[in-house]
Amino acid sequence: MSRYLLALIQEKIVSGLYVLSPLQVKFIKKEDLTHFLHDTLLECPDIMFKTNSDMIYVVMPHKDDVLVLMGLALMLFRLSHGCIPKDGKVKRLYRIDLTASLSTMERSLILDRVKPLVGDGSVYELISSFLDLPIIDDDGNVRSDISFGVIPPVGEITRVLFNIVLMDTFDREFPNKFPGITFYRFIHEVYISTREYDEVIFDEKAGYALLEELSMAGKIVSIGPCDEPLLCYYKRLVLIDINSKVHVCYPIEY
């Protein structure tokens, strides 16, 4: 893309005149996935997949919007945070996968959490319009039957918006409910370390009660010393050795 076009897009965004196009849903047979990626990733390098028994489908932004959404995600990423588990001794390690909460969040909640970070100007309006984009198929039909929740699953912008909401909901409430309990969260994955002499108790029952209180959904699993490792974000493994120490490594190192 030329510098002129980049400058034009920037000017439209700043002035509030940039209009996002409808999202496009693609249905791919599993045996055609490699060919689809070869033809797609150059123009749209950041995509997310959904699967069913025999098909893969992906919701993609219009090619003219790819750079805009990636730039928006990068800007918001600098305003958010997250980390994977760190080494240390624990009695038990719990993981809460909050992916299911994407389909239960309300639009107003997302915008309320974003506004203090970006204000109520053109960037806020761009995020608001993104949440309202229709989904169309290759025939130009609006697919109102396809629902992914409030935040469309189109890549990094989805993960960053989700992260911002969790910063001001889960991250704020957990220390109030479980003072002294160490937790780490990276996007949708929360890791909670419990120790022998914790003053408060965290377990699966307490975790699901917290999710219900926050109107969230998720799945909780846990491991102890020498149990099978948990798969962590970015294809890493989290495990607890015989000495109750947490390790994070790549599968080749396990």
Question: Would you kindly provide a written description of the structure presented here, covering whatever features stand out?
Answer:
The protein has helices spanning 3-15, 33-40, 66-77, 107-118, 122-131, 156-167, 170-177, 204-213, and strands spanning 23-29, 49-51, 55-60, 92-97, 135-136, 182-186, 189-194, 219-223, 230-232, 236-240, 246-249. The longest helix is centred in the N-terminal third of the chain and has 13 residues, at 3-15. The strands form three sheets. The chain has a four-stranded mixed beta sheet with strand order 2-3-1-5, with no helix packed on it. Strands 6-7-4-8 form a four-stranded antiparallel beta sheet, with helices on one face. Strands 9-10-11 form a three-stranded antiparallel beta sheet, with no helix packed on it. It is α+β, with helices and mostly antiparallel strands. Helix 3 packs parallel to helix 6 (156-167), helix 4 (107-118) packs antiparallel against helix 5 (122-131) and helix 4 (107-118) packs across helix 6. Helices cover 33% and strands 20% of the residues. The model has no long low-confidence stretch (mean pLDDT 87). The protein is globular, with a radius of gyration of 20 Å.
Q: Give the spatial strand order of the biggest sheet.
A: 2-3-1-5
Q: Element order, helices and strands?
A: HEHEEHEHHEHHEEHEEEE
What's the total helix number?
8
Helix content: 25-40%
The tally of strands reads: 11
- Our measurement of the CA-to-CA distance between the termini, rounded to an integer number of angstroms, reads 43 Å
